[in-house]
Amino acid sequence: MLKVGQIGTGHLGKFHLNNWLNIEGIQLVGFCDIDDANANAVAQKYQLQRFEDVEKLIDACDAIDIVAPTSSHFELCELAIRKGKHVFVEKPLANTMEEAKELVKLAKEANIKFQVGHVERFNPAFLALKGQVLQPMFIEVHRLAQFNPRGTDVSVILDLMIHDIDIILSLVRGNVNHISANGVAVMSDTPDIANVRIEFDNGCVANLTSSRISMKKMRKMRLFQKDAYIGIDFLEKKTEIIRLNTPGDKNVFTFDIDTNNGKKTIAIANPVVEDVNAIKLELEQFRDAIINNTDTPVSVLDGFRAMEVAHQILEKIGNVTTH
Q1: This prediction's pTM
Q2: CB within 8 A of 316, min separation 6: which ones?
Q3: Rounded distance, CA 79 to CA 62, Å?
């Protein structure tokens, strides 16, 4: 049995607890939480041991799951790594780029498994594209949320947009060439709404809009590539592929259109979207990486790259408070 401990049992932390308790091969040895009232309630509800000393919890585990505020990520990750423990930490990886860079170095030196919680990589709508050839040249993203004071300790870039930054970096075969951005702080001290344009050296352009002060929720990504359009609805868990029809296409709806180059056949496909619990799946794959000694699906370097682009965006906006 793999012994796991969890630090942080707030809103998201409780989702992690519920899933750890239902993952095979895992013994959840206990948790840490600085909020006494919440910790007592969690200990009673889940019948779990509360550790008041973080070091003692880490010492009792093979792996630690950090679902604490971003400001404490580095300290907790560093402590766990130096004790030779495997680490899962929620996004963003760290509070500053210096901290993130140090964690990449420490994780590599310690030869432990390290995974960053970019959960949208495990969204069933995104997973439905597995096996598809994705070579986007233009990407349009809208991630809109209603205002919630929880999470406003970081900007909308590090809170919401970083999900899409991570996915785009995993899809685009190229390096970031140029970033232009603007954002506005409306309800908090950091940007609550932002629009960003990322240009890659392979010619791909990504246009991202994120807001946490919208009237309705939206989490959509649209990929445009040669002869194809791919729509991903992360919220509704739907995926759509529209492309010029090719021989052998099955389970698609087709229709013809007249163009200057003659008649073209358009095929619309809706890949099967499995009913997947994204949080459980990312935790299971973290477990598997430890047990099988394989790479984690979202590495510490992936987390660093997403943070690096996010901080470049913040610098463009002019609202970076940490360096």
Answers
A1: 0.91
A2: 179, 180, 181, 182, 196
A3: 13
Residue pair 1/26 in contact by the 8 Å Cβ criterion? yes
Q: Who contacts 25 (Cβ-Cβ below 8 Å, separation ≥6)?
A: 1, 2, 287, 291
Residue 157 DSSP class = I
- Looking at the chain, which runs of residues are DSSP E strands? 2-7, 26-32, 63-66, 86-90, 114-117, 138-144, 176-184, 193-200, 205-211, 218-225, 228-233, 238-244, 252-259, 262-269
Q: Which CATH number fits domain 2-121+278-299: 3.10.20.310, 3.40.50.720, 3.40.350.10, 1.20.1290.10?
A: 3.40.50.720
C-alpha torsion 273→275→280→286, nearest 10? -40
pLDDT digits (tens, 9 = 90+) for 249-269: 555 666 677 677 777 777 888
**CATH superfamily label, 124-277+310-317:** Dihydrodipicolinate Reductase; domain 2 (3.30.360.10)
Q: Which residues pair with 205 in a beta bridge?
A: 138, 199
pLDDT along the chain (323 residues), means of 10: 97 97 97 96 96 97 96 97 98 96 98 97 97 94 88 82 98 95 89 96 97 95 94 97 68 68 78 95 98 98 98 84 39
Q: What is the DSSP string of 251-310?
A: SEEEEEEEETTEEEEEEEE--------HHHHHHHHHHHHHHHT---SS-HHHHHHHHHHH
Which residues lie closer than 8 Å to 242 by C-beta, 6 or more apart?
A: 228, 229, 230, 231, 266, 267, 268, 269
* Per-residue pLDDT tens over the stretch 281-311: 999 999 999 999 999 999 999 999 999 999 9
Are 183 and 195 contacting, i.e. CB atoms less than 8 angstroms apart? yes
Element housing 318 (H / E): none
Distance CA 9, CA 192 (A): 25
Residue 132 and residue 239 in contact, taking contact as beta carbons nearer than 8 Å: no
